[in-house]
Amino acid sequence: MKKQSLVVSTIFLQVVIVALGIGALALMLWEPHLEGRNAHATLFEIYFNDPFLAYVYIASIAFFVAIYQAFKILGYVRQNKTFSQATARALRIIKYCAMSLIAFIVGAEGYFFIAQRSEDDIAGGVAIGLFLIFVSVVVAIAAAVIERILQDAVGITEQIDTADAVHPAGGQRG
Predict the structure, then answer these.
(1) pLDDT digit string (tens) for 44-75?
(2) What would the pLDDT profile of 111-133 be if each residue is shown by its tens digit?
(3) Residue 4: its pLDDT value, please?
(4) Over the range 23-59, which residues count as b (16 or more CB within 10 Å of their CB) and which as e?
(5) Predicted structure pTM score
(6) Residue 174: pLDDT over 60
(7) CA–CA distance, 173 with 171 (Å, rounded to integer)
(8) Cβ atoms of 91 and 146 closer than 8 Å
(9) Which residues contact 88 (CB under 8 A, 6 or more apart)?
(10) Which of 50, 127, 153, 172 is the most exposed place for a label (fewest CB within 10 A)?
(11) What angle do CA 136, 139, 141 make, to 5 degrees?
(12) Cα–Cα distance measured from residue 120 to residue 147, given in angstroms and rounded to the nearest whole number
């Protein structure tokens, strides 16, 4: 019964992750049309005349890679491969993606302060950027801690497997 509950839980979380990714993609494609300066712009003007929008789309690659890795981790959990090198590798990739997002967001904040300071009220963009930096830092630290714990667990598991291969069941361990 516990195995079935684990399968259902991981599938549910994978569906949530897919919905989060689709929602983020939809927001990224829909929001530029609502921006005040783009209200009457053509699609070409919206997507090809705004270097900041291109920067955001490039930065979002790290987010979507992290989402995919989280999806893979849940697949490993469902396959009972939680304590494996593949899971630790996926966590490491999530950590690197979060760190690159932090760098991209800091760059965007710098853009707000340098290029946009005289044009618009930047307080909203800065606040959102600071919130996203905080979330990315939390994700990076959590992924690093869990990766370290998993690496230790995988090391212990490999030591036990090696000891079992050297000393088969029923033999004396020294």
Answers:
(1) 777 777 788 889 999 999 999 999 999 999 99
(2) 888 876 666 677 888 899 999 99
(3) 84
(4) eeeeeeeeebeeeeebeeeeeeeeeeebeebeebeeb
(5) 0.82
(6) no
(7) 7
(8) yes
(9) 147, 150, 151, 154
(10) 172
(11) 110
(12) 42
- CA-CA distances (angstroms) from residue 104 to 8, 57, 61, 88, 108? 36, 11, 11, 24, 6
DSSP 172: P
Distance, in Å, from the CA atom of 68 to the CA atom of 83, rounded to the nearest integer, reads 19
Please enumerate in sequence order all residues whose Cβ is within 8 A of that of 170, keeping only pairs 6 or more positions apart, or say none.
Answer: none
Decide if pLDDT at 20 tops 50: yes
What values do phi and psi take at 117, rounded to 5? -60, -40
CB atoms within 10 A of CB 129: 20
